[in-house]
Amino acid sequence: MNDILKIEMLGHRGDGVANTSKGRVFVPFALGGERVEVRGNSTRRELIGVLDPSPDRAAPICEYFGTCGGCQLQHFAKEPYLEWKQDLVDEALAGLDIEVRSEPIVSFENAKRRRVVFTACHTSDGVALGFLKRGTNDIVGLGKCPIIKEGISNSIETIKQIIRPILPAKGNSSIHVLECKNGLDIQVESEGKLNEGGRQSAVRLALEAKISRLSFGDETLVETKRPNLTVGLAWVSPPPGIFVQAMREAELHISELVCAHLKGCKKVADLYCGIGTFALRLAENSMVLACESEQSALDALDEAWRGTGGRLKSITCEKRDLFIRPVMALELKKIQGVVFDPPRAGALPQARQLALSKVRKIAAVSCNPNSLAQDLECLIEGGFRVVSITPIDQFVHTPHVEVVVLLER
After folding, report:
1. What does the pLDDT look like over 133-191, one tens digit per residue?
2. What structural domains and CATH numbers belong to the chain?
3. How far apart, in whole angstroms, are the C-alpha atoms of residue 224 and residue 303?
4. Cβ atoms within 10 A of the Cβ of 21, count?
5. How far is CA 250 from the centre of its chain?
6. In the annotation, is 259 catalytic?
7. Which ranges in 166-294 belong to alpha helices (H)?
8. Whole-Å CA distances, 174 to 147, 189, 191, 212
9. What is the pTM of this model?
10. Whether the Cβ atoms of residue 377 and residue 364 lie closer than 8 Å to each other
11. Which of 9, 176, 231, 319 has the maximal Cβ count within 10 Å?
């Protein structure tokens, strides 16, 4: 028998939350204030119908919404959706000693995502390529996607043809696709092994489609032209599957905030630097220490810096796992400004050393407001004050939100 629930609010993961006699119940695709019909008896229920819809409800922009797990919030109208995301940041930082209010959230149009990770597998009907169905390992095969850039969305069938010969007979594989300045960069991550026939077929198909690069794990199968991204004055050739900001527009906005804040610092550190998203821009005005655990990312950064022909100040690259071996306060003695952009777990070991240091300015970039709150608490206790907080909706129609926090002593 189905139940009727009143949704009180939207939870942090984007699900509607109802309070019942047995505790909280979470309903995907429901909105606050709605009366809904649901099925199931666990703490997560399946939405059957909306009896009293919220005025904030909107028509989804994608035919796959509701089955595809890529988006969770296309049913949420833009303005209240952005307000909710802003509240996620404000709530996460609410317990800290911060005097400033967050800036209005920065948002972008659809079809801007240039980096995407699909899941693919063989089926009786051919290759399925798309995103996992919510809560399962089943792939929702896509025809097109309105969130990712058209260069990727329009190439979904081509990508399926190229990867088909090198997919394992069973099981799912991850397909990393990055739209570069000069074409698509495709990497297949799989537990399967390559056979020579499959390799040759995939290479031939990639050449015919004029794909920039096709890789299987760390092995480049074919590279018709080196994939390139522009970062400030530099051209960067990213290694296969490396982290790149999901939207170029978001990257530009974040970088502008970071560079403006650290301008005037003669020497800066870019911690968790990746391929140099900030380092290459900061080096236009400052000497840079760039730390990262992935050697391939550092190699790409170093090559890009050298390729600018002396137009940038020095960038010193150091391979370093900052979770295990953070840059110590004494090592930061000559550093005036720092930017850090860690994985979702945050940068607490590094934040502790920054709190002990003489660094004057910090730009903290994060995709997780909760771990960011821990880092900020440590820095505030160490004598820093927050001067601005900017939420950025880089991951549209999802509960994920990017944040840039600027601090100074």
Report:
1. 988 899 999 999 999 999 999 999 999 999 999 999 999 999 999 999 999 999 999 98
2. 3-82 (2.40.50.140), 95-108+247-408 (3.40.50.150), 115-229 (2.40.50.1070)
3. 19
4. 4
5. 10
6. no
7. 196-209, 248-262, 279-282
8. 19, 5, 10, 19
9. 0.95
10. no
11. 231
